[in-house]
Amino acid sequence: MIPTAERRPPPCTDFTRDLLSRVGDKWSILIVAHLADGPLRFNALKRTVGQISQRMLTLTLKSLEKDGLVSRTVFPTVPPQVEYELTALGRTLMEPIMAIIQWSLDHQNEVEKAREIFEIRSSSFAEQKSSG
Question: I want to staple 90 with a disulfide (CB 3.0 to 4.6 A). Which of 60, 67, 69, 104 is the partner?
Answer without folding.
Answer: 69
